[in-house]
Amino acid sequence: MRKLILLGLVGLAAQLVDGGLGMAYGVTTSTLLLFIGTNPAAASATVHLAEIGTTFVSGASHWKFGNVDWHVVVKVGVPGAIGAFLGATALSNLDADVAKPVMSSILLVLGLYVLTRFTFKGIRTDRMGQRLRARFLAPLGLFAGFIDATGGGGWGPVGTPALLASGRIEPRRVIGSISASEFLVTVAASLGFLVSLGSEGVKFTWVLALLLGGVIAAPIAAWLAKHVPPRILGSAVGGLIVLTNTRTILRSDWVDPSSATMWTIYGVIWAGWAFAIFWSVLQHRLDATQGITTEQEHQALAGSSTH
């Protein structure tokens, strides 16, 4: 019962993050599941099964509010589903001792990206309205889907910034389209895990706990999206992901650092994390003096809708 409550809190925390940033539900949840000792493949399978419900509701909501570009959904979602199925199969066939540092390495890279992306933001607007081509969307979907399944998350952290950086689609449609297409990716990843693993290592009570935690957090996440500066939240969460997955890698068989080296690395991460949060707070206050509200900041980063 204690673990179920903890998992519910994990789902709640991840949904709060996702609601505030428009991404990072899978990355955050998988990181925390690994931290409490869950098998990597089972962790990713659990997250994706829970996300079937959350991504369906999210995608439907974005469609209702006109935030979905179906051209983007099809062109990025179908290759994403293929990549997710392949990624789930690959992860399921890795030995757990190998898979854990591999998964943590992927999450570490994504965490660094989230940290730097939200600490030092920048979105192109000079090409807004130009059509996104399949030759860009298909490889992006394939890569993001594979990373999402093998890393336990990554569809949002990879797909959303890439579409935003293209400067060709307005932010709210980026978030809505990524949200709607993620349902295809989540279903494909879940099928890949079930085909490769069966129900081995997947506890459906855990899936339910994560799902319930996310449902409870949804209205709070909506409030966060409007009132808490996403730049600051992104820096805080990105640092947490980096620190946690660095810890997992340093304690794996891949490396054997001395105690002094390990604590030096931790110190550098803590210092960098503190600077990132300080810088985000400073820049947010500067924006506030120029009349930029938290809601406008959120729209500039990730659209007016939550994911």
TrEMBL record:
Entry annotated with the keyword Membrane: yes
Keyword hit for Transmembrane: yes
Compartments where found: Cell membrane; Membrane
Membrane topology recorded in Swiss-Prot or TrEMBL: Multi-pass membrane protein
First-listed, main subcellular location of the protein, grouped into a coarse class: membrane
Transmembrane stretches, start-end: 40-60, 72-92, 98-115, 136-155, 175-197, 204-225, 262-282
Protein name: Probable membrane transporter protein
Species name: Nostocoides jenkinsii Ben 74
